[in-house]
Amino acid sequence: MSTSESGPAPSRTAREESIVESTRRMIAAAVLYSHQVSEQLKLGPSDAQFMTLLEVHGPLTPGRLAELTGLRTGTVTGVLDRLEGAGFVRRDRDPHDRRKVIVSLDQEQIAARVHPHYTGQAEHMVTLLGRYDDRELAVIADFMTAVAGEPMP
CA 23 to CA 152: how far, in whole Å? Predict the structure, then answer.
């Protein structure tokens, strides 16, 4: 991406501060939008986050959801009851250990009822990423992976 030639480049500290502030604004906007979508779907804010965790990690046990969210198992049960009642998740017995329950998303319901709320955001993101060359995309991907706390590839 080309830099403006209308003045001196910002200092490293100024750029770092700008990135931190922009990241904070992006997180706040994402959380607020998630709350709006949850409201439209008649769900609580935690419910949407559970669906995101299941989308990212795949099927999980309620205990693992409790670990990932820091919520008590009783709270997790309440969230799962709401999500199951709304048709977004299902609870099945683990085929390898029938004592365990595995929670998974109902992909058809997610595609039909949740994804349409995020299509515009995804398209906007792809448009923004089109401004960068492959080398810059690699840097952005590395940064976002590190920010998300994921292991580096």
Answer: 20
